[in-house]
Queue: 2 jobs
Job 1
Amino acid sequence: MQEQLYRVLVINPGSTSTKIGVFDNDVLIMEKTIRHSSQAIAGFSSIIDQYAFRKQTILEALDEEGMNVSNLSAVCGRGGLLRPIEGGTYSVNETMLEDLRRGYSGQHASNLGGIIAFEIASGLNIPSFIVDPVVVDELDPIARVSGFSLISRKSIFHALNQKAVARRYAMDKGRKYNELNLIVTHMGGGITVGAHSGGRVIEVNNGLHGDGPFSPERAGTVPAGDLVELCFSGQYYRHEIMKKLVGQGGLVGYLGTNDAVTVEKRIQKGDKEAELIYEAMAYQVAREIGSASAVLRGNVDAIILTGGLAYGKGFVESITERVNWIADVAVYPGENELQALAEGAVRVLKGEENAKIYPLG
Ligand SMILES: Nc1ncnc2c1ncn2[C@@H]1O[C@H](COP(=O)(O)OP(=O)(O)OP(=O)(O)O)[C@@H](O)[C@H]1O
Ligand SMILES: CCCC(=O)O
């Protein structure tokens, strides 16, 4: 019998781009990255204000590629800063739309994913979904304790790519994801290191404005007392400090660029400051992996390195030589987010899974 074919449009809005793909089941038939210049983005005062502009660019891109939207079975967007929820595929509903519009847990480009998916899908009378948003929260209770009773640790991380790559690793090894203990390290504009056990991410750093290694544009963990002193020194406004932590932190703060390729070129030309900072970023990633290995009591099947920085050979080597005594290191450069969105939607369309209802419980 012929397999039923579902055509799914997937939408992944990032800070400087909107990536879209069209899949027939899990097979990619069209992919496009629409880049937004900083001038185009700067014209909007908030993420949500970009909604009509981004939706229009998506529809134009589909039109240019000759994609007839009336053949779609569903639309799936990357979910944003919602309430903390467990991983999986969720139907877009009114509560979710409201939370995405007001940025329940903050502002992030992916807040637009579910909204645009819903708008396109409802015009076609087809379902819309989100999959594994950045707020997926499967932390063990012990991981929430920060040590400061007024603040709990939060789970904000690259859930979509971490889960997709972990599943891919399991498939490559002929194993089931939920049988493995994995340390998955996503290294992009932000860096998150997750301890995956029994199919759940029981510990992970909050890669947005929480903790963990510094990254191309984020500060990660900073000494708390010194940060408090700086906040009250009268030198900076609140939004300026926030920007120094997220956006202008990490490599940007030290070296003026978020582009690791540029940093590598500077190192090749003998820039010692660039060498120290780049090495420090690898050192902090390795330190976070070591910490995740303790969470898993040393019972680690593999350490997985993924995201754009995993293309950097020297960077990967520098991490690997510090952590390969813990477990084998597998490298999956780049990200697999469009594919993961499509697979999440198709699992539901085929009836292999039920779509979850937001918010759970
Ligand atoms: N070939 C390469 N060698 C070294 N670094 C690379 C290479 N290609 C990309 N990078 C670096 O990867 C980083 C961006 O990674 P990525 O594209 O995963 O981030 P993003 O999607 O913008 O953010 P995030 O992954 O946090 O959502 C940049 O610093 C970029 O310079
Ligand atoms: C940490 C959440 C995803 C991102 O890097 O923006």
Job 2
Amino acid sequence: MKSSEFNSLVLDAKVIVVKVGSSLVTNNGNGLDQVAIAEWAAQIAALVQQGKQVILVSSGAVAEGMQRLGWKKRPIAVNELQAAAAVGQMGLVQMYERCFSQHQLHTAQVLLTHDDLADRKRYLNARTTLRTLLDLKVIPIINENDTVVTDEIKFGDNDTLGSLVANLIEADTLVILTDQQGLYSADPRKDPNAQFVQHATAGDLALEQMAGGAGSSVGTGGMLTKILAAKRAARSGAHTVIASGRESNVLVRLSAGEVIGTHLEATQMKIAARKQWLADHLRTTGKLILDAGAVRVLVAEGKSLLPIGVTAVEGHFERGDVVACVDAGGHEIARGLVNYSASETARVMRKPSQQIESILGYVDEAELIHRDNLVLLKQA
Ligand SMILES: Nc1ncnc2c1ncn2[C@@H]1O[C@H](COP(=O)(O)OP(=O)(O)O)[C@@H](O)[C@H]1O
Ligand SMILES: N[C@@H](CCC(=O)OP(=O)(O)O)C(=O)O
């Protein structure tokens, strides 16, 4: 881990995504914490006064819905969870609107699904809308559109959603506010000797070993999803800070340069925005298994993927779909927009590109995936 001689990663940030978890927002599931929400709103208003642009990703719809409906136990049935989210979301946005209006700031509700971000046009629309709202000094309040999503297409947790939003708008820093001071070497609820981590590199695999699941029945992802969110956000160059939402004036102090919580620095090269969109597909419909030579030229030489380097095809996909490229061990090394369907790819794989025409009767491109449409998930 790194030394403590550094400034907060929020100090120079112009565009900031702040994510607040369910346990904080709903006072551990006991109903919306009006005092806390009013304080975050006041702090965000102060950041906007400083010329910063802030997006809020807020959890708490399900927890607040349960509270309003008088449900003591989190339901398992998806339709009940979705109903609770629909009820709770009303409370969330009403509360945010009221608190931000005290500072003459408008809020905007933005509910997103994975499909919205996987579709290139909708992704670009979401980006333009969010940027417009920020330019208008409106505070976007984002949550997953829980009412319409099923498990298969869920972001799953708002830490992931926060990182996708950070990538979408190319934020400088993602601040994840939670019920702990930050990351410890083990879950502090279970291990009293756990050591605090103040500063590390986002994407460091050692962090994933330290992070455990959710500490309460109210939160969902725990620390692991926060660490993975930091890794994802770092691909667009965004740093991540994980800090306690109960720390007094935390956002304003971070913005003034004070080091509070765990700072996870983005050190890798920033991926171009279009490639970022490819990397942020949480699910891909198909898989290409590559031989060692193809893995090497992709990773070390940044080349396009040719049919000759593919040994097997899995899943169903059409031309233009995003597919995963995995090595013989099943590790995903890249993903990209494929030029041929699954059945066409199965026919041309292991063959030189010059044979595509004689096999298929036509040729669209010599490459299976052109390097401009390919994003590496593994560094050379
Ligand atoms: N290594 C760790 N360091 C800190 N907290 C951890 C760690 N591993 C697991 N946790 C748990 O993660 C919880 C925070 O995640 P979660 O309950 O999902 O909150 P939120 O609603 O803020 O997303 C903490 O309360 C803590 O019990
Ligand atoms: N969309 C859900 C968020 C669930 C979630 O990720 O919660 P958390 O782990 O507290 O951030 C809701 O609003 O209840």
